[in-house]
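Q: I'm writing a short explainer about 1,2-phenylacetyl-CoA epoxidase subunit A for a general audience and would like to include a description of its predicted shape. Could you first generate the structure from this sequence?
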Amino acid sequence: EASAEERRFTELIEADSRVEPRDWMPAAYRKTLIRQMSQHAHSEIIGMQPESNWITRAPSLKRKAILMAKVQDEAGHGLYLYSATQTLGITRDEMMDQLIAGKARYSSIFNYPTPTWADMGAIGWLVDGAAICNQVPLCRASYAPYGRAMVRICKEESFHQRQGFEILLELMHGTDAQKRMAQDAVDRWYWPSLMMFGPPDDDSPNSAQSMAWKIKRFSNDELRQRFVSMLVPQAEVLGVTLPDPDLRWNEERGEYDLGEIDWTEFHEVLAGRGPCNALRLQRRRDAHEEGRWVREAAAAYAKRVAERETE
Ligand code: FAQ
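A: Of course. Here's the predicted structure. Afterward I'll give you a sentence or two in plain language.
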């Protein structure tokens, strides 16, 4: 027999209304939100690294200013999402400790290297493109602080996506070497960007419950499919080839057929054995250590101000 609180929660979800932090919610709903939202926040923070790798080497002052602004946006998204997650009763310190200890997940995509400038284009076009596809439906997530965070974040991601597209467009109008560099980056980022949507539907343990709770609105495969449909015409404009020989329009399904995704690679990256997992985690640990004096100084100052007020 459901309690009155439980019935009210179920009605709220059924009516497509929203859950606020002070509302009653099932413990499992709270837990899955903390899981997904903290992972999302960690992704933004770790996601700063592949691009910050190029800030000192951007090919012009203008490109450098744009890239710095983008990486700063990612920091902002991370902090914004940590705050939204804190409304569920976990502290920022707990989340940070989990990340530093290597116990927290963050998106698989940020464990790949960025050896060339064209990677900045491919990340913007493919990684931010995938992020938008995944996150636009999350603007309607049943947990209100998450949905509200997504509205603002998606606006910034769409600017990020266009700046990536524009980097690739310029390279594709350049020399043969620049065209090869752009195509090579697309070849390396295409498959990992498809993996961002998560495992296939029949191997996605969290999907059914998250969809019933209206946190997720579409399945992993549905969003992956939508992403590819968005990419195909854009790839034509760019003049790049998507590196999937089996990619073709299926008239009957009204969708593209995709080649086989290498799920072994996906699981290896999730297990911590991707090309840059160790590097990303070490960099985060070092940054945390290097920032210790700032946190301590801020805490000491806050304490002194509080003492002065009670004097
Ligand atoms: N990487 O049962 P499901 C960005 C895990 S965009 C790592 O399907 P769910 C912007 C999953 O957590 C990137 N782990 O799970 C940016 C679960 O593990 P758990 C961040 C993955 O939650 C751009 C297990 O596999 N975006 O940062 C991945 O229903 C450029 C089973 O999976 C978000 O986080 C993966 N790719 O669906 C920043 C979006 N896929 O927790 C900088 C919000 C799955 O049981 C530069 N999140 N796993 O141990 C979501 O929409 C969902 O959480 C999914 C996964 C779709 C990612």
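A: For your explainer, you could say: The chain has 13 helices and two strands.
Q: Perfect, that's easy to follow.
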